[in-house]
Design brief:
Elements: H1 2-9, H2 12-29, H3 33-54, H4 61-65, E1 69-72, E2 75-78, H5 82-100, H6 104-124, H7 126-145
Antiparallel strand pairs: 1-2
Helix pairs in contact: 1-2, 2-3, 2-6, 3-5, 5-6, 6-7
Length: about 150
């Protein structure tokens, strides 16, 4: 419901506010060291993202670092506006949770967070969304080969 409402209203904050209880519950459910770290990092990223959107903070990482992509946790992440970096990190962290957690509920929570992070990126910048989707498909094909 939050994804649909946020996309229709073109407001990523709506999507994030609907996602917040899911991330909090993911923090509560995870038990392992790496999964607890990943879920806590997701909560911090989500809180930072709320602040970036509310205070309309813009900063372009690609120009600052002089590159368009960075390898984070084994995944290529497109760099650009700092607001897009948050949901991109959420996607990477949820992918880590999907692969490392054992509980089926925590896996499904991570899948919900992954899908929602793509919706947040889409509402922030559809161009970056296309690039992120291309990179995701590229990584998925690479993983299938092995």
């Amino acid at each position: 419901m939050g994804i649909v409402w946020g996309i229709v209203a073109s407001n990523p904050l709506i999507i994030i506010l609907f996602l917040l209880p899911t991330v909090i519950y993911e923090v509560y459910r995870t038990e392992g060291v790496s999964t607890k770290w990943a879920s806590l990092a997701m909560l911090l990223v989500l809180i930072a993202e709320i602040g970036l959107i509310i205070f309309n903070i813009n900063f372009n990482f690609a120009e600052f670092l002089g590159q368009s992509e960075e390898l984070v946790g084994g995944y290529w992440v497109p760099l650009g506006n700092i607001k897009v970096l948050g949901p991109t990190l959420l996607a990477v962290l949820s992918a880590i949770l999907i692969t490392r957690t054992r509980g089926r509920y925590t896996i499904w929570l991570a899948v919900i967070i992954l899908v929602t992070s793509f919706a947040i990126v889409y509402t922030l910048d559809p161009t970056i969304f296309k690039e992120l989707l291309r990179l995701g498909v590229k990584e998925g094909v690479r993983e299938l080969r092995y």
